[in-house]
Amino acid sequence: MHCPFCRHADSRVIDSRTSDDGLSIRRRRQCPECGGRFSTMETASLNVIKRSGVIEPFSREKVISGVRKACQGRPVTEADLAVLAQAVEEAVRQTGSSQIDTNDLGLAILEPLRTLDEVAYLRFASVYQAFDSLEDFESSIAQLRADHAAASE
């Protein structure tokens, strides 16, 4: 790690702490050359493989913006969307893979979104599960009704 003050090529770790969310580590460092102290944040990388083959870093903001469209006109707050994006990221990280396809990421969003708002879930599912007809919507709605009936028993 280069020192941000004198650009010396090395630094010494003084202290390490896990962040509040447990997904990153904050390290306090000191430069052996100038004595300057600075902090770094380290996270495990998680990349998304787009349909075009391009690989880019996972972004909670992109998850939120995609889900926001499905939630348009629904009683869903920005805080709800932030919690959903965090849950999706945690679920994807638990798979142990450092890369995920965009389609798999879309599918990982479905369950938390279903819990949040069923109408938004149907809107989002119609894109990521490639609904082709009314029968696709009907079967998805029938599954939601069956799940409600099972939960109320």
UniProtKB/TrEMBL annotation:
Cofactor comment text: Binds 1 zinc ion.
Zinc finger motifs (unnamed), residue ranges: 3-34
InterPro entries: ATP-cone_dom (IPR005144), NrdR-like_N (IPR055173), RNR_NrdR-like (IPR003796)
Signal peptide residue numbers: none
Domain ATP-cone: 46-136
Domain of life: Bacteria
Cofactor: Zn(2+)
The keyword Zinc belongs to this UniProt entry's keyword annotation: yes
Keyword Aminoacyl-tRNA synthetase: no
Keywords for the protein's UniProt record, in alphabetical order: ATP-binding, DNA-binding, Metal-binding, Nucleotide-binding, Repressor, Transcription, Transcription regulation, Zinc, Zinc-finger
Family from the record: Belongs to the NrdR family.
HAMAP family for this protein: NrdR
Task of the protein: Negatively regulates transcription of bacterial ribonucleotide reductase nrd genes and operons by binding to NrdR-boxes.
Name of this chain's protein: Transcriptional repressor NrdR
Taxonomic lineage of the native organism: Bacteria, Bacillati, Actinomycetota, Actinomycetes, Micrococcales
Gene field: nrdR
